[in-house]
C-alpha cells in the first residue's frame, strides 16, 4: 500500500514513544517534545531532499496547529492555510487536517475543509499508535492528498494560481 519513496521518507522520521494526549499533564509535555523533535527532523529531511512543502506552528499548549502548505504543479506554487486540533483522545485518534479555503471544492473533503483520510491513512495510523505523530500525519496524509487533489482541482479550474505579492523592499527596486 505504501510505495518505496514513502517508506524511505517514513524511515527517516523518528517514531514516538509516549502514549499521551492533551489531558495527560506532564506526559503530554513529554509527548509534545517528541512531536517537535520528529517534526524538526522531517523538515530537515525535506529541505535536504529539496522537498520543503509546509510551515507549521502551534499554540502554547500544542493543542492547536496552524501554518501553510504548498504544492508545485506545472511549475506554479499553490499555497494554502493548514490547521488542525489535537483530539482529546490523541494519539489513538489521528488529527483531522484541514485546508479551510478548499472547503467544498472536492469530494475528498469533509466539513470545514477537513481532508478525507479514512480509507488509507486512518487504518495505518491505528496500527501504529503511539509511534506515529504529527510528522507522520503530514507525510502519509496531507502530502499524498495534495499530490492527488491539487492537480485535479487545477485541471477542473476549481483553484487558480495567484501571483505572490511582492514585498515592499523588492517592489521598490532599491538595491543599495
TrEMBL record:
<dbReference type="GO" id="GO:1990592">
    <property type="term" value="P:protein K69-linked ufmylation"/>
</dbReference>
<keyword id="KW-0833">Ubl conjugation pathway</keyword>
<dbReference type="InterPro" id="IPR016135">
    <property type="entry name" value="UBQ-conjugating_enzyme/RWD"/>
</dbReference>
<comment type="similarity">
    <text>Belongs to the ubiquitin-conjugating enzyme family. UFC1 subfamily.</text>
</comment>
<comment type="function">
    <text>E2-like enzyme which forms an intermediate with UFM1 via a thioester linkage.</text>
</comment>
<dbReference type="InterPro" id="IPR014806">
    <property type="entry name" value="Ufc1"/>
</dbReference>
<dbReference type="GO" id="GO:0061657">
    <property type="term" value="F:UFM1 conjugating enzyme activity"/>
</dbReference>
<dbReference type="Pfam" id="PF08694">
    <property type="entry name" value="UFC1"/>
</dbReference>
<dbReference type="GO" id="GO:0005737">
    <property type="term" value="C:cytoplasm"/>
</dbReference>
<protein>
    <recommendedName>
        <fullName>Ubiquitin-fold modifier-conjugating enzyme 1</fullName>
    </recommendedName>
</protein>
<feature type="active site" description="Glycyl thioester intermediate">
    <location>
        <position position="116"/>
    </location>
</feature>
Amino acid at each position: 500500500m505504501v510505495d518505496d519513496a514513502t517508506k524511505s521518507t517514513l524511515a527517516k522520521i523518528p517514531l514516538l514513544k509516549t502514549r499521551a494526549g492533551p489531558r495527560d499533564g506532564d506526559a503530554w509535555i513529554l509527548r509534545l517534545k517528541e512531536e517537535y523533535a520528529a517534526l524538526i527532523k522531517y523538515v530537515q529531511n525535506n529541505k535536504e531532499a529539496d522537498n520543503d512543502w509546509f510551515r507549521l506552528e502551534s499554540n502554547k499548549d500544542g493543542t492547536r496547529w496552524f501554518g501553510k502548505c504548498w504544492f508545485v504543479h506545472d511549475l506554479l506554487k499553490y499555497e494554502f492555510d493548514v490547521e488542525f486540533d489535537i483530539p482529546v483522545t490523541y494519539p489513538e485518534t489521528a488529527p483531522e487536517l484541514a485546508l479551510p479555503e478548499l472547503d467544498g471544492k472536492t469530494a475528498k473533503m469533509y466539513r470545514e475543509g477537513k481532508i478525507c483520510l479514512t480509507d488509507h491513512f486512518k487504518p495505518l495510523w491505528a496500527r501504529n499508535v503511539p509511534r506515529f505523530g504529527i510528522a507522520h500525519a503530514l507525510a502519509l496524509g496531507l502530502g499524498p492528498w495534495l499530490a492527488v487533489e491539487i492537480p485535479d482541482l487545477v485541471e477542473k479550474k476549481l483553484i487558480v494560481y495567484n501571483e505572490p505579492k511582492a514585498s515592499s523592499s523588492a517592489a521598490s527596486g532599491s538595491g543599495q
